[in-house]
Structure formats: structure tokens, C-alpha cells
Amino acid sequence: MGKKKTKKNRGSRTHGRGIKGGRGAGERGGRGKAGLQKHKWKSIVKEDKDYFGPKGFSRPQGLVEETEPINIYQVEQHLDGLIEEGYASKKGSGYEVDLEKAGYDKLLSRGRARFQMKIKVPSTSEKAVRKIEEAGGEVITNGD
Prior knowledge:
This protein has 144 residues and is α/β, with parallel strands linked by helices. Helices cover 26% and strands 17% of the residues. The chain has a domain at 69-140: CATH 3.100.10.10. It has helices spanning 5-8, 41-47, 72-77, 79-85, 99-102, 126-134, and strands at residues 69-71, 88-91, 94-98, 106-108, 117-120, 123-124, 138-140. A four-stranded mixed β-sheet has the order 2-3-5-7. Strands 1-4-6 form a three-stranded parallel β-sheet. A hairpin with a 2-residue loop joins strand 2 (88-91) and strand 3 (94-98).
């Protein structure tokens, strides 16, 4: 392997770059991302196809509300734990469950309702309400 060009050309006026080649950004085609739509276009096309164009949008974190959903089958799975923690109680042949106090925001419909449950929750899907009512229970939301 030979010596580097700078070492080889020490003492010469232009270090082998020509009269204007060694000035400023020189022969590198500009500094940084200069020329990406012109003479450096090939590198963009090959390596970073998504460089230009829309990228999407991130909402400010202060506006993003995270919901904590729970499905019907999960409520039934955790029923014993909810009773121990005081978020549910057995009433006659059914259960009363306060999902709002337990920290859940929405009841979703996945699973089958096997018990009569009176569930209090801030919001719910229509299908979940239908399934709970078919099992002989009821759902109480903030709108009711």
C-alpha cells in the first residue's frame, strides 16, 4: 500500500488537488447535505429512498391521551383479584365490578360473558354492552 496523497504532496502548492480543488469544501461536492437533489442524487436513490417526501406527524405528548382498555374475558379472568383488591364484589348470583376505580378506561368485547356482571366503566364498545346484557348483566358508563 502506497503513502497517503497528503504525505506524498507535502511541499507542493496544491497537494495534487489542482488550483481550486483544495479550497473550502473543495472537490467533495459541497459541505454536509449540499447537492442531494443535484450531483449527489445517486446516493439518495440507492441508500435512503425515503429521504424526501412526507414523514408523518407526532402529536404533542401533552395532547396524547392513553387509554387503558380491558376485554370481557380479562375481567372474568381477574375477577378473584379484583374482589381481593376491593374493586369488585359478589352480589347474589352475579358480580358488581368497578373498572373505573381499578384504573381501566374502556371495556372491549373480546371473550364471552359467562357471569351476570354489573360493570361500571367510563366508556365501552357497543358489542361489549350487548354481550354483558345477553348474560343478564348491565354496563354503567359515565353518560348513563
